Amino acid sequence: MILTTKNNTKIGQLDLTPLINIVFLILIFFMLAGSIKPVDDIQAARTSSGSSIDTELLIIAIDSDGNTRIGKFSSSDDELNEALLEQKQRNGLVGIKPDARLPAQRLVEISAMVQRAGFSELTLITRDP
Amino acid sequence: MFEFDNPRPKPSIGLTPLIDVVFILLLFFMLATNFDVERAMYVSSVSGAEATVTENSIVRIHQLDKGSVSVDGVSMDENTMLQALKMRHVEDQSLAVSVSVAAGVSVQSLLELIANTKEIGISSVSIASETMAADQ
Fold it and tell me: CB-CB: which of A52, A98, A111 is closest to B46?
């Protein structure tokens, strides 16, 4: 004879329904609250202040070795200059996303390049602490 | 009421493959999800906006190291500088700050300094091109 409980669960057998419920809830949380991590080797600096990025920016990323890239493509300083001048003609804005480990002098060099291209303001892209 | 003597057994659905798939999905989202939010910090590009404010309203900060700065040749820690800057900003709302960096300072330290300066209410912050490393 097999003993059963009210829910027809055999004694000694685990009821998996609550587990599945919780796992589904966690799954839904991760699917809705997060975003899939892009492949990006740049660890942006973490700062406590800043606003959301809401404009179309020409984003210049600088990796920890000081190499620059626009979008996914590496760019030399000359190519960077050309892109900046094009962006200036379009009346666009410029953002710099430097790696947190980068010596700050490289950021200063790129900022100077942006200023020489005629931009009076630039956006530094950071992330939440 | 009419009843069968041998009622047909209820068909049961095996949940194990479902749980397997859900666990795999959960693992994928846990590992691949990114909660980082990018922020924008607006600064004047190198010395670009300095012409719009009077010379007396510009405070030139030279960052020597993480948490250590020099203002007009006087070295101090960052917190002391921020307190002094906050008091000066109360008196002069048009106060602008120009930040330069010594060799070896990381981007993280520089951006923390700029963020802290902006947090006390100073909106006009620029990055100065001269490193002044040789002077310090």
Answer: A111
Q: What is the four-CA torsion angle of B47, B49, B52, B58, rounded to 10 degrees?
A: -60
Question: Cβ–Cβ of A47/B39 closer than 8 Å?
Answer: yes
**pLDDT per position as a tens digit, B26-38:** 989 888 887 878 8
The nearest CA of chain A is from the CA of B92 a distance in Å of 22
Report the C-alpha gap between A31 and A34 in whole angstroms.
6
**What is the rounded CA–CA span in Å between residue B99 and residue B58?**
10
C-alpha torsion sign, points A39, A42, A46, A50: negative
Tell me how close the Cα of A116 comes to any Cα of chain B, in angstroms: 9
Interface test with A, best of B21, B31, B34, B39 (most A CBs within 10 A): B39
**pLDDT digits over B60-80, tens only?**
899 888 888 998 788 999 999
Q: pTM for this structure?
A: 0.73
